[in-house]
Fold:
Amino acid sequence: MKLKNNITLKILIFVQILFVFSCRTNKVAKNEHLFIGSNFKYLDKKGSPYLDSYGNPYLNEKGQPILNKYRSPYLDELPNYVKQKPNRKILFYIPLRLWLYDISNPKFDSVYSEYYAVNSKQRKQSLLDSLYIKYNMKEYVGKSRWIDRFFYHNGEAPVMIDENISRGSAENLQKYFINRGWRKAIVTDSLITNKKKAKTQYDIRLGRPMTIGSVKYDIDDGILNPMYAGYLRYVKERLKNKKDTMSKEKFIYSIFGRDSIIKKGDRLDAYVFENEISKLENIFKNLGYFGFNDLKDEVIFYVDTAKSIYEVPVTLKISKSLLNNNTSTDSLKSDTIKKAPHFKRFTYNQVNVTLDRARYQPNHGVPIDSTYYIVKKKEFKKDNLGKIVKINGKKIKTLTRDSILIVNKSGGRYKNRVLSDMMVFKIGDKYRLNSEIETRRNIYKVNNFNILGFNTFAERGSDSTLISNIILSPMDKYSYEIGFESFSSRVANFGITPNLTFTAKNLFRGAENLSITFGGSLGNIESKKNNQKLFNASEISIQASLSFPRLLVPFNVKSLVPKKWGPSSAISLGYNAQYNIGLDRHNYNAAISYNVTPTRTTIHQISLWNLQYTQFLNPGNYFNIYEEDGKTRNEVYEYYFKYNPSAGVDYNDTKTLKDDQLLVTLQDDRTFQDYLQKQNAKLYDSYYNLVERRRYRFTQNVLISSFKYDFTYDQRLGFFPKKNLLYFRTQVEFAGNLLSLFNNSLKDFKTSNNKIVKEIFGVPYSQFIKLDIDIRKYWNFSGKRSLNSRFFAGIGIPYGNSFDMPFDRSYSVGGPSDVRAWKAFGFGPGTSKLSSKNGYELVALDNFKLFSSVEYRLPLPSKGFEGALFVDAGNVWGTQKNSHNKFEFNSFYKELGIGGGWGIRWNISNFIIRFDFAYKFHDPTRDEDDRWYFKYIKPLKPQINFAIDYPF
Structure:
């Protein structure tokens, strides 16, 4: 207790010292104040009446006060509109750079200011000496004063409060609120001073907001009529009940109103209107209207404030119009327009793809001639294609493929098919913005070309045809990448993992990429044999992958899988060797997989053939490594020797009975198993249904041959992500079914737990079905705050040639991205207790898993830092009849491990470093009446998790 009190006292003293130093104002002049931040105070409280500028309440038609139904809005966004910022802090509290500046001697500020104003190459002692002389400090000539200079140069001058800037910030805030719909908003600023420090307080009175009274639509016939005619054709050809045909007015609403974010009764928010306009631009550019609203005068929201400024009629007008200079300042856009021609849909008349390695300029970016081959239409006549023609005065060999003109100047390095297969659009196609975006995505996905130019423009003299010029240059054929990571796990205290990736592009002239990764790791584990060494565990691996920008199938699938889906294939091979706790194993794997992305938010991946062979090198070491399981085995031995005394003599005295023979006997002797179950049912269950199952997973060589399908739907990848986003992923794997067709030709094999199965080349194959479902929901709020949740369920069902799931396909809980209050593999299955009193900690695995997590994320004062509060819950269970801790629907909730805590994340250019500090709330391994853990929580002893990126 005394030690705990000392630690707490030291922490309090340290915090007090930080507080004292944070209050330093050494270099603040007498009549100035150090600016330490801004306060924002809303004078309109939720539930109170709206007041006008005279303090009188607004009344409704019945003469009753109109009450404010909004909470204080956008509080986290307001600092962005304040011009003056306080000195930067680290760790949310410490103005370190201000401290450094304070430490430097103010006597030399003028000298250092001029010294650091010049180029770093000119900063020499001679310059410093000349400045000493200039400022009458000859006694310092020849002295570097590098420590003082370091403090000055790396410090930050104190930010003094400026009332003029505060007044300008108040005006910014007032304009901001007016744009958000509070037309009568008033923002005033004032100072709150405390000795040499000061804050600016902004008092905000919003008043009654403007709302949308009604929404009408005025759509140009040039757009509306073709759309409605297409709908009528669809009704005539596809729908049986013609009576359900929508009127033109209902059709307009179904297109423009049903999914609109502009709704009656909502606040008149200019930012919302801008988002709606962007969405409409995207819609119509994908309907063929090239350049739609590029000049921002074709989609206009009119607001009529003549009758009321609080319930305002809104009209969406889409027309090919020109704005008049005489605009009204009382609406979002003027309703005074000039008539102009109707909209027209555009078609590609030329699609030109140029590959020219000579034009790649890595040091200069996009070439000066960004239009490159802009040619006259007559030069693309059919009889010229495939011949040498003159383009811009140069003789160029051209050809056409899939209605795309190709100028391939790679010297035969790339097949023309590569260029045409990336193109989603061709000559004669209607313009569609998504086609160009999908083409760019295909080019990036192929990972062979730099895009030097991607230009689409209207053909001269035409109002409905386009020319598209795409200019590419090949990337370097060979490249390499060096990576380095650190890690910790339940087995390893810490480790490092260096790796080297070598990539060779365009292996067979079809943009095929070969990637080979050499990796390894060095780690430290607790070991009785070699605990003196810093690194006593290691791993080496090599992974090779050959990717193809097409589907590797023996038949044409273009009609089934269009180019815009970005089809690709990969063949991969790998080898991995682990030497750690003593079991040691080798993994060999191979796979053929296919990938398509039908939409921006959906991904399908099929692994047609997955092969994995796992070989354990020292299975006999299991009970020496996991001594708790060895202890359970020895108890069973004692019962067996009582049951069969001669076996005890052979084992202990004559040494003629070995462990491996005795383990087989324990599995075969049904009479002894009945005897043990009567004598000690708990020991029987623990050994046969838990220890032996675990030993089998950890020591049995196994061959997995499977088919796998993976589907992902991720709204975060959409063009216009919604405020609340959904992520859904499901994966199903079937293993061993193909091999089972040959069972009659295969030999029998006795596994390490004495089961008879079929084998191939001396190794049993696994047969199972495995299903995973992962659902995530992201609720985004203002100020970069969000509430995020995840639910995961997974089940593996062994059957046929398997009695249990292999190690690599089993489920576990705990760790940085799971139930964070426990280490990885830290508890389960069910209520099982994993003891670590002797040997290595046991590892919890089983066939069924449930996991859920909720996490609230919010920005912290220091730039780039984010905080989090989270709660996790989950466990693993068995699913078979003889499973230890089998899943039971009526009681599983009592066996959930529940934990929670807080975390800090550091965002470095979208690279997230994460620390989570978690505590157990509900521990299923304890007695049922003592599982809630709150009274045992030790605030200064959390389970610390370090990881890269968010947990989900």
